[in-house]
């Protein structure tokens, strides 16, 4: 998609976040004030066109986008364990981004950058087609009530957008602990012709994805996390 294309009007119901409070701890305020200018950008303030990730990171490397990094517990460990990747986290929740900045400081991360804002807008307006090594969407808001399912981010239009931004062979990796949402993810992604499932149904839980406190709580409540991994097929396939 080019910058001249318009976002479909019905995308206004598909967002990558819900509004939350922004009260921060002293440590989070310090991290924000100290590191945001170098490591973070606001999606709404990005110049028109694709973001030059190579210039931002100061190196050319595969770019992996994580949508909804939350409080950054998993994100910081994933970035730490893959220093060869330019790891980008997009999140709307300021205290979560500030906490991730604290974790980046703790692990001395050089390969992590943060974006604040709507991931749908970021992908549509500021990510070049076929440019991403991977996209991760871990434990998105489940919107468990049937009348709210339309608000879930994993919808056909969103999946088609993600697929268009993945380079051939790039992987869209999702995880959720809500069984019905996992089934929806599987159905929607399986119906996208630009993607193919790397596994027969659910993916085996990868060792590299950390078990966070959030997932541990889900286990206590009797919910099992399911992973899905879909690969961008080449145009020749």
Gross geometry: globular
Share of β-strand residues: 15-25%
Alpha plus pi helix count: 8
| Content-based structural category | alpha/beta
Distance between the termini: 21 Å
Averaged pLDDT, please? Answer: 92
Can you lay out the helices and strands and say which pair or pack?
Layout: H1 26-39, E1 40-42, H2 53-57, E2 63-67, H3 73-80, E3 86-91, H4 94-107, E4 112-116, H5 119-126, E5 132-138, H6 156-165, E6 166-176, H7 179-190, E7 195-197, H8 213-220, E8 226-232
Parallel strand pairs: 1-4, 2-3, 2-5, 3-4, 5-6
Antiparallel strand pairs: 6-8, 7-8
What does this structure look like?
This protein is an alpha/beta fold. The chain has eight helices and eight strands. It has helices at 26-39, 53-57, 73-80, 94-107, 119-126, 156-165, 179-190, 213-220; strands at residues 40-42, 63-67, 86-91, 112-116, 132-138, 166-176, 195-197, 226-232. An eight-stranded mixed sheet has the order 1-4-3-2-5-6-8-7, sandwiched between helices. Helix 1 packs across helix 4 (94-107) and helix 3 packs parallel to helix 4 (94-107). The longest helix is centred in the N-terminal third of the chain and has 14 residues, at 26-39. It is globular and about 45 Å long. 38% of the residues are buried.
